[in-house]
Structure formats: C-alpha cells, structure tokens
Amino acid sequence: MAHIPVLLKPTIEYLNLQAGEVFVDGTINAGGHTIALCPLLGSTGLVVGIDADSEAVKKAEHNLQTCPCPVKVVKNNFRYFDQILDQLKVKKIDAVLLDLGFSSDQLESSGRGFSFLRDEPLSMTLANDDTLGQLVTAKDAVNSWSETSLADIIYGFGEEHFSRRIAKAIVDYRTAKEIITTGQLVTIIEGAVPIWYRRRKIHPATKTFQALRIAVNDELGALQAVLPQIWGHLNSGGRLAVISFHSLEARLVKDWLKTKVVAGEGKLLTKKAIKPDRTEELANPRSRSAQLRVIKKL
Ligand SMILES: C[S@@+](CC[C@H](N)C(=O)[O-])C[C@H]1O[C@@H](n2cnc3c(N)ncnc32)[C@H](O)[C@@H]1O
C-alpha cells in the first residue's frame, strides 16, 4: 500500500515555511510531506532529508526532483543529527519535521518482518542493510535475550498485559527450535494468551511486535538523542514538528517540549496535540493514532 502522509494540512500550516528557509525532514521516507512543503521554500531555500532506509532515500531523491530549491538526502539514523548537518556544512536551520515510525510500504512490504499478518524473516530493523552498523535484529532478541528482559520489553514498550506468559512461551519454544520467522512468533504468542484475548478485534501479536520493533531499533533512545541536537541548530523563530504514533513516543515528546516551554526557550504552537479528523481516519486508517505537536523556538 502506498504511503499517505499523515496530518499533512496541519503540518504545512504549523511549520509555516517561508521562502529562503532551511528545512530538515528527519524522516523523509519517499518525501510525502516534503513534496508538499518544498514549493514554499522557493528557489533560495534548502531541504535536508534524512532516512535510515536506503530504499526510502532513493525514492525521496527521485520524487523531490521537482522541488524548486536544492534537496540533499542523507542515509543515516537521525540520532546523529549534529554529525549529519556538520557533514553538509549546514549550521542553522529554520524548521524540522519528524514523522516517526515506519511508512505503510515498509510495514507491509519491506520483507523485514514488521507485520504479524505475513510470514517473513524476523528482522524488524530500521535500515534495510547493515551499513549503519545495526547489530541486533528481532530474531536475535527472541533467541538470545533472557526471559526477564523479553518480558520487561514486551511490557514496557508494548504495554502488553500478558508479557510474562509470552516471554515464557518464547523461551520454552526456543529450547527446541530457533525462532526465525514472524509466523513462528505469531503462533507462540497465540498459544500463550487466553482464548478471549485471541478473539478481540486487535491481533494478539500487535503489542509484542511493536515492543520488539521499538527495542531492536532503540526508537525511544534515538528520539531522546535527536531532540536536543535539533534544538541546538534551530534559529530563534524556528519550528519543530513531531508526529508520534504510540503513547511512549507521545509522552517523551510532550515531556521534552514542556521542558523547553518551562525554561522559557520555546512556545508550544499546538496547545493540544493535533489528531486526524474523521475524514482522514477513514481515508487513511494508519493515521488513527497520529498526534502532531509543534514548538517554536523563542
Ligand atoms: C512514517 S515514515 C515518514 C513518511 C514521510 N513523512 C512521508 O509522508 O512520506 C518514517 C520514516 O522515518 C524513517 N526513520 C524512522 N526512525 C528513523 C531514525 N531513527 N533515523 C532515520 N530514519 C528513521 C523510516 O525509515 C521511515 O522511512
């Protein structure tokens, strides 16, 4: 399924890009948001795009050829924000967008085992190759992490009520056979939870898959690392927009933005997080959990 940019209209409105500004899309993917944003920068602006996935980088470079200003797309983890800008010799920036997580195409058809609906190798890595030095895959995690670590991660990052049962089932299973596919993991999870839990609308593997993905990619660590680096590069008057998709991300962003407001360094432009309206939710069910928060540096 092609990725549809979420909360596009409010993102354009709150970022309020002006001709000649420097805009960083920290999660550019195929450039869905940036295609709509870059005309506002005119020919004197600059777009810097970042993505850890080289397929995404290729797509963005192709799709953004029509932007009126120069576009530089870098394959890297946004947690190295300072280093990325240094290498491009970009010092000050005016606006940043982080649209967190993964695109619909990555989740559904990257073959990396993000979806419990497909039987694929259990990888779940952010980068589609190992050039960023990512050493841990979901396969490594389920086959080598202790039962306690697995339970803690499934509970902490998935908010999964049956984390202990699932972790025990994973460890029991792997004593006989290595877990290498999403299909095996789904079967293990289904066997570990009560029947009523299997019959609910939400798939019983949803939370465990989310937890493993967050853990393997250190998604919260990367987010925690990037926010102060972005802040350090933003001009006063600069805007930072973050779109989050689960409660852990949302909490981290909300709390960090609050520290900037309390310190008198920033002004929240979104008093309450912006959520998709009914029309967007129906057109793009993936947008349902999205929340947009925007701060302006004072
Ligand atoms: C939801 S998609 C962005 C979609 C894009 N805004 C659009 O509408 O086309 C998130 C993208 O961020 C990338 N990503 C997630 N975490 C990252 C990180 N820590 N460093 C670099 N890229 C990351 C993913 O590979 C993915 O391509």
UniProtKB/TrEMBL annotation:
Single GO MF annotation: rRNA (cytosine-N4-)-methyltransferase activity
Catalysed reaction equations from the record: cytidine(1402) in 16S rRNA + S-adenosyl-L-methionine = N(4)-methylcytidine(1402) in 16S rRNA + S-adenosyl-L-homocysteine + H(+)
GO terms under biological process: rRNA base methylation
Annotated GO CC locations: cytoplasm
EC id: 2.1.1.199
Location of the protein in the cell: Cytoplasm
Pfam family, one: Methyltransf_5
Key words of the record: Cytoplasm, Methyltransferase, rRNA processing, S-adenosyl-L-methionine, Transferase
Keyword Nucleus part of the UniProt annotation: no
Location, primary (coarse class): cytoplasm
Residues where S-adenosyl-L-methionine binds: 31-33, 51, 78, 99, 106
Family: Belongs to the methyltransferase superfamily. RsmH family.
Function, as annotated: Specifically methylates the N4 position of cytidine in position 1402 (C1402) of 16S rRNA.
Classification via PANTHER family: 12S RRNA N4-METHYLCYTIDINE METHYLTRANSFERASE, S-ADENOSYL-METHYLTRANSFERASE MRAW
Name of this protein: Ribosomal RNA small subunit methyltransferase H
Organism annotation: Candidatus Vogelbacteria bacterium RIFOXYB1_FULL_42_16
